[in-house]
Amino acid sequence: VQLVESGGGLVQPGGSLRLSCAASGFTFRRYDMSWHRQAPGKERELVASITSDGGSTNYADSVKGRFTISRDNGKNTVYLQMNSLKPEDTAVYYCYRFGSWGQGTQVIVSS
Predict the structure, then answer these.
(1) Do 101 and 37 meet the contact criterion of CB atoms below 8 Å apart?
(2) pLDDT score, position 65
(3) Is 59 exposed, middle or buried (0-12, 13-18, 19+ CB in 10 A)?
(4) What radius of gyration do the chain's Cα atoms show?
(5) What would the DSSP string read from start to end of 10-50?
(6) CA–CA separation, 77 vs 59, rounded Å?
(7) pLDDT tens-digit readout, 2-12
(8) Which of 30, 71, 82, 91 fits a 20 to 30 Å CA distance from 19?
(9) What is the share, in percent, of the chain residues with pLDDT greater than 70?
(10) What's the pLDDT tens digit per position in 23-65?
């Protein structure tokens, strides 16, 4: 199993980023996927999840209305579109499939 995140970076408050997680080594379309984040000094938390067919999504209250999780089963990729970013969204963002984590991608929201 390999999960490789990309798309992080430095963005100003109010800006947008799209994270991608390229999956390999397993049958991607059979698995629910999720994004998590960990800010300095804080525990890792669930940000958003999506079912295997993309038919259902779930979000942390802190990101509802601003973030959108989606997936392309043809490309074995899950995405996290992040809009209206706030400084408190600063964290390392991780892609997750049951039992496996990606290496993370850093998101910094700062002016």
Answers:
(1) no
(2) 98
(3) middle
(4) 13
(5) EE-TT--EEEEEEEESS-GGGS-EEEEEE-TTS--EEEEEE
(6) 18
(7) 999 999 999 99
(8) 30
(9) 100
(10) 999 999 999 999 999 999 999 999 999 999 999 999 999 999 9
Residues 6+ apart with CB under 8 A from 3: 21, 22, 23, 95, 96, 97, 100, 101, 102, 103
Residue 34 DSSP symbol: E
87 pairs with which residues across the strands? none
Q: Residues 1, 62, 82, 47: what is their CA dihedral angle, to the nearest 10 degrees?
A: 0
20 closest CA partner among 111, 108, 95, 101:
95
- Helix (H) or strand (E) holding 69, with range, is strand 67-72
